[in-house]
Amino acid sequence: MRVAFYTLGCKLNQAETESLANRFNKAGFQLVSPNDDADIYIANTCTVTHIADRKSRHWLRLARRRNPQALIIATGCYAQRNRQELAQLADVVVDNKEKENLLDLTKTLSPEGRRLAESETKQSQVLATTARTRSLIKIQDGCHSPCTYCIVPKVRPYEYCFPVSQIIDEVNQKVALGYKEVVLTGTKVGSYRDSSTYLKDLVQRILASTFIDRLRLSSLQPSEISSEFLALWQDERLCRHFHLALQSGSETVLQGMRRSYSLDQYQRTVNLIKEMIPDAAITTDIMVGFPGESDEEFEESYSFCQQAGFANIHVFPYSPRPETVAAKMPGQIKDKVKQERNQRMLELSQSSRRSFYEHFLGQAMPVLWEKETRPGSGTYSGLTDNYIRIFAHSEKSLKNDITAAKLVELHNQGIWGELLDENPG
Question: In this structure, which of 22, 85, 99, 351 has its CB flanked by the most CB atoms within 10 Å?
Answer without folding.
Answer: 99
